[in-house]
Specification:
Blueprint lengths: L6 H10 L19 H7 L23 E4 L2 E6 L21 E3 L21 E3 L6 E2 L13 E3 L4 E2 L15 E3 L6 E2 L13 E3 L4 E4 L13 E3 L4 E4 L13 E3 L4 E2 L15 E3 L6 E2 L13 E3 L4 E4 L13 E3 L4 E4 L13 E3 L4 E3 L14 E8 L4 E7 L3 H7 L2
Parallel strand pairs: 2-3, 3-4, 4-6, 5-7, 6-8, 8-10, 9-11, 10-12, 11-13, 12-14, 13-15, 14-16, 16-18, 17-19, 18-20, 19-21, 20-22, 21-23, 22-24, 23-24
Antiparallel strand pairs: 1-2, 24-25
Helix pairs in contact: 1-2
Pfam families: LRR_1
Subcellular location: Membrane
Organism: Bodo saltans (Flagellated protozoan)
Length: 393
């Protein structure tokens, strides 16, 4: 490289030989060419916005998406900016960086293991790119990280057990990748976790009982994987969970009665597994539950009368199981019920008259045996229950 270099490349030249640029020592923790390295690698001409980039140093004049505190770069937000190329390894030197947003670009390559040295980093968003490779085990050292969004990429590794050391992590989004392997038991140590999204991957193995220690967890998405085994009794400790998505896996065994202690649960999705056994009476304690999907399993036994205590229930899907018995009269207390799907079971008897008070019900789909008629009666209507009752012979 000669002495006559462009303004863009001069910034990186200053980074490569930063000791010869002493006149800008006021930039503190920030090493001058670190941010501009991305500019030179990508070319920047395709960026949607590039004001200030490559013309001088950040923190001395305004660069698009860059925020400073004195001489330290604290935030970079280049989301949706048509950026290509790879993530610069050298950015680990920006020890004052706290927020980094690069979502919705076309970045490729791998995650730099060196970024584990970003000791002040609080928020990292790299979702909706073309990133691949492994999740660096070294990132378990970013002890202050609160939010990590890596969903909608093409990562193909296992989940690092070392990430269980990020004790303050609140939001971790890894869905829509090609991740595999088992779920680390050590992640049960992430006591501050609120939202964990792992759906649409290829995870296998069982659900770690240790995750029942994450008492503040609010949303857990594990659907569309290859998980198996039984549902852990200890997960009944999830008193704060609002949404639990476990559908489209290969879970077997019975429904844990202890899950009835999930008093805050609003949405429970367990359909399309291989679950068996009966419907737990104790689940009637989940009085705030609004949506329950248990269809397409091998559940048997009768419909629990206690479920009539689920007064907020709106959508109840129990079709395609092996359920039997009659329709509980007490279910008429579910006055907020909108969709009730009970078809493809072995239910018998009549539709209880008490169900006529379900004024919000939109759809009833069921098939019940009536031995006195030696026939099965199908009910499928989008009408009030009393009108459905009138359709029965």
């Amino acid at each position: 490289m000669g002495h006559h270099i462009s303004v863009q490349h001069r910034v990186v030249w200053c980074h490569l030989r930063w000791r010869r640029c002493d006149k800008n020592k006021s930039l503190g923790k920030f090493h001058r060419g670190d941010v501009a390295e991305l500019l030179v690698e990508d070319g920047s001409t395709r960026w949607s916005s590039r004001t200030g980039w490559g013309t001088t140093f950040p923190c001395s004049t305004e660069w698009y998406g860059v925020t400073c505190d004195g001489g330290d770069v604290t935030s970079i937000n280049l989301s949706g900016n048509s950026i290509e190329g790879t993530l610069p390894n050298s950015w680990w030197k920006m020890s004052g960086l706290r927020w980094l947003y690069f979502n919705s670009n076309t970045l490729s390559g791998t995650l730099p293991a060196s970024w584990a040295n970003l000791s002040d980093l609080l928020h990292l968003t790299l979702s909706s790119n073309n990133l691949s490779g492994t999740l660096p085990a070294s990132w378990g050292n970013i002890s202050g990280l609160l939010n990590l969004y890596l969903h909608i990429n093409d990562f193909s590794s296992t989940l690092p057990a070392s990430w269980g050391s990020i004790l303050g992590l609140q939001n971790l989004f890894l869905s829509d990748n090609s991740l595999s392997g088992t779920l680390p038991a050590s992640w049960g140590n992430i006591s501050g976790l609120l939202n964990l999204y792992l759906h649409i991957n290829d995870f296998s193995g069982t659900l770690p009982a240790s995750w029942g220690s994450i008492l503040g967890l609010q949303n857990l998405f594990l659907s569309d994987n290859s998980l198996s085994g039984t549902l852990p009794q200890l997960w009944g400790n999830f008193s704060g969970v609002r949404n639990l998505y476990l559908y489209s896996n290969s879970f077997s065994g019975t429904l844990p009665a202890s899950w009835g202690k999930m008093s805050g649960l609003l949405y429970l999705c367990l359909n399309s597994n291989s679950l068996s056994g009966t419907l737990p009476q104790l689940w009637g304690s989940m009085s705030r539950l609004k949506n329950l999907y248990l269809n397409t399993n091998m559940l048997s036994g009768t419909l629990p009368a206690s479920w009539g205590n689920m007064l907020d229930m709106q959508n109840l899907y129990l079709h395609s199981n092996e359920l039997s018995g009659t329709l509980p009269s007490l279910w008429g207390s579910m006055r907020n019920l909108q969709d009730l799907i009970l078809s493809f079971n072995s239910l018998h008897g009549t539709l209880p008259s008490s169900w006529g008070t379900m004024s919000t019900l939109r759809n009833i789909v069921l098939r019940i045996q009536q031995p006195q008629r030696n026939a099965a009666v199908s009910v499928e209507c989008a009408a009030l229950p009393d009108q459905c009752l009138a359709q029965l012979p």
